[in-house]
Amino acid sequence: MTSIRIDQNLTSELLAKAKRKGATAADAVAVEGDAASVQVRLSVVDKLSKAQEKRLGLRVYFGQRSAGASTSDLSPASLDELVETTCALAQAVVEDPSAGLPNPAALAKEWPDLDLYDSQTVPMDRMIELATRAEKAALAVDSRLTNSEGADFSALGGRTVFANSHGFYGEYQSSSFSCAVAPIAVQDGLMQRDYWYAVGRKLNRLDSPEAVGQEAGRRTVRRLGARKIATCRVPVVFEPEIAGSFLGNLCSAVRYILPRRAAGGTHRPRLGHGLRRRPHARRPGLQAVRWGGTSHAEERRRGTGYPQELPAGHLRGP
Question: Is residue 312 part of a domain?
Fold first, then answer.
């Protein structure tokens, strides 16, 4: 079977098909990439995973009615069905006064290279070695660290393409590497667990497995002997990981507001009013599109999804 290349020709033809179906405007986003991960527990390989992803989403507008759907089947017949289904959905919904593409004059004509991509590949046996080193380093911190929930190492690389019927086309590549470990400490019959991780765009900038393991061990041991405190009024200081989650929620809110403002919308839904789910396809091979979501196949298992939003560099703990 011939592999369909995701490029400007493909998106232009898809948008043209939507216009021929009567759509007043449309945009498309496509993602392709590779992901690999390993998990070891007590130096034994527990899980291996390797996957390739290729999917394409289409959103169409009929005036101020809109709907979106996506497919992982890029064959001509499937893309024709995607256009047909999405156009039918858009014509079935109520109008949204804020729906529409941004003004063509507001679209970027050029953009900087944010250095999001690392072309290095990590063989599976090398990933197993790195995860094993992290776990061994964690358990070596203290004799009370006697067990482990496992250590992970993963690598992601992908390409994202976006185009709309105003003539915009852009694409970028991105990558992510991560290492995490979660040791278990035992004292007086009670167990405590914690973890630590490193995640980054560039492999050579990632903290060493030993550094990750030692920090995970230190954080786990410090939990031993913890006790409850009486109810009281005290200042609350959030750990960096928790504080970062607030920024993630803020970014999600901004991602929702800005496209609507750019489209000229002034609608501000009140609590409990005007908040509806858009209709989406439930046929095999089609699924609803979460516009503005991460392009990666999965987020890191222990809260390391947030660094996917960073333009460059990597995130680590204090």
Answer: no
Backbone angles phi, psi at 206, to 5 degrees: -70, 140
**Residue-number span of the structural domain to which 218 is assigned:** 8-246+282-295
Q: How sure is the predictor about 242, in pLDDT bands with cuts at 50, 70 and 90?
A: confident
- Does the residue 221 lie in any domain? yes
pLDDT at position 301 = 41
Which range, of 25-34, 78-87, 152-161, 302-311, averages the lowest pLDDT?
A: 302-311
CATH number, domain of 226, equals: 3.30.2290.10
| Confidence label for 2 from pLDDT (cuts 50, 70 and 90) | low
Q: CA-to-CA distance for 36 and 113, rounded, in angstroms?
A: 25
Dump pLDDT digits (tens) for 251-288.
888 876 665 554 454 444 433 333 333 333 333 343 33
Q: How many domains does one find in the chain?
A: 1
Specify if 274 maps to a domain. Answer: no
